[in-house]
């Protein structure tokens, strides 16, 4: 989920992040068009598009208000403070990589 405006396309051109992720949930296009984190409707758009209950999703963000909103929506929510802490938290959630 990203609040990026259309300049996310410039990021894609430079970094080619689509090798690793889809740009499905960007606030300027697609299912999240016009919606921004931490608005509850943004999280609802994601769960609706994925056709999954929020309890099956993990949300990671570096902003506490967004993490709080994801938790309020029913998602497992993780505040990103660094890669080591993230890896540990994801393992606690039962995710392996």
UniProtKB/TrEMBL annotation:
Source domain of life is: Eukaryota
InterPro entries attached to this UniProt entry:
HAD-like_sf (IPR036412), HAD-SF_hydro_IA (IPR006439), HAD_sf (IPR023214)
Question: Cross-referenced Pfam families, in alphabetical order?
Answer: Hydrolase (PF00702)
Coiled-coil annotated spans: none
Task: Name the chain's protein.
Answer: FCP1 homology domain-containing protein
Query: Which organism encodes this protein?
Result: Tetradesmus obliquus
